[in-house]
Structures are given as structure tokens and as C-alpha cells.
Amino acid sequence: LSLKILLLTRATEDLEAEKTANEEAKVRYLREKLPPLQLRGLNIDDLQKVCKEIHEKIHVVDEDRYDCEAKVLKNYRDINKLKLKVQDLGGKFKKPALRKVRVSADEMLKALFGSKTKGSMDLRANLKSVKKEDIKQEKVGDWRKNVEAMSGMQGRKKMAGPGDPESSLSYAAIDLGCRGIPMMH
Question: Which residues does UniProt assign to the signal peptide (predicted)?
């Protein structure tokens, strides 16, 4: 915490020193470029000469400012034109199709490390071995037996009599999954 406070005080001191240095540089520059005017004791002709000199200096400064602005605008336009050219070229360039190259492990190591490698390295020796588990699959038998076993009759067939309303139904229709659809003999 105290280190943080020390850093903050140091930063504020540096900022204040920088501000004073900038102000001093500004005052020095203005003293060099703008000498103080001695207007006391001058007649009208001398005051007019001083005004003309100041206007000429203003005119020169305005010309320089205009020239600088024109250069900046020209450079800005050139940059935009070059950006557009780059974008146009980016759309027209067709990427070449990459070819698949088969490289053995030894050749790859030689290319990467140069001739520093000794002999051939077996990269498969470092791999972890994985045991394959046998997946047990259910044996698929006769589907008719599975349907009878699931019907709850445990292999017994229902005997249909002449007075039985279900006698008109065919067991084949039940086996085929068409329950409730009467089939005539």
C-alpha cells in the first residue's frame, strides 16, 4: 500500500514538472517569434508600418499553414488510394492449391533439427497403450420368438374357439404389428 502511495506521489510530481516545462517552452518560443512591441512614442506613420509588418507576418504564417494542410490532405488521399488498391488486389489473388506431401518421421526430424538426430526415432514407442474393451452385443434371434416372449404368454398359444370374438383375427396380423385390424380367413 505504501509503495502504491509513493508511486502515485511520484507520478503527480512528474506531471507537474512536465506541465511547467511545457509552459516554459511555450513562453520561450513566443519570445523568440514575437518580440515585444514598442508602441509608445510612435506617430501614426510608424504605427501603420508596424501594422503592415504584422499583417505580412500573418500572411506568411497563413500561407505556411495552408501549404501544410494541403500536404496533409494530399497524403491522406494517397493513403486512401493505396488502401483501395490493396483491397482490389486482395480480391483478385487466387490462392494456390496446396499439395499433400508424405514425409516420414525421420525426414521430418532431419528437416527440423538438421543432422543432429541420431539414427531413426520410433515415435510410436512414446505413445500410451490403450486396451480395447470387447463390446458385448445382444444376440439377435428369431423376431417371432421375441414377440411371443414379450406378449406375456410364455410360449403358450391362445386357442380361439368358435364363440370367441377374436377368432376372426389372424395371429399373423398380430405378429406383423397390425394389431386391431381384423383379417378374414
Answer: none
Question: Do residues 86 and 100 lie in contact, with contact meaning Cβ atoms separated by under 8 Å?
Answer: no
Phi-psi map region of 132: left, alpha, beta (phi>0 left; psi -120 to 50 alpha)? beta
Say what the pLDDT of residue 101 is. 76
Range of the domain at 5: 1-36
| Structural domain contains residue 20 | yes
Tell me the pLDDT tens digit for each residue of 65-105: 999 999 999 999 999 999 988 887 776 666 677 787 777 77
pLDDT tens profile 129-145: 776 665 555 565 666 66
Q: Is the distance from CB of 54 to CB of 33 less than 8 angstroms?
A: no
Cell of 49: 508600418
pTM higher than 0.90, yes or no? no
Total residue count of the chain as it appears in this document? 185
> DSSP assignment of 15-46, as one string?
HHHHHHHHHHHHHHHHHHHSPPP--TT--HHH
Q: In whole angstroms, what is the distance from residue 83 CA to residue 77 CA?
A: 10
3 assigned to some structural domain: yes
Q: How many helices (H) and strands (E) does the chain have?
A: 5, 0
Contact by Cβ (8 Å): 180, 152: no
Residue 28 lies in a domain: yes
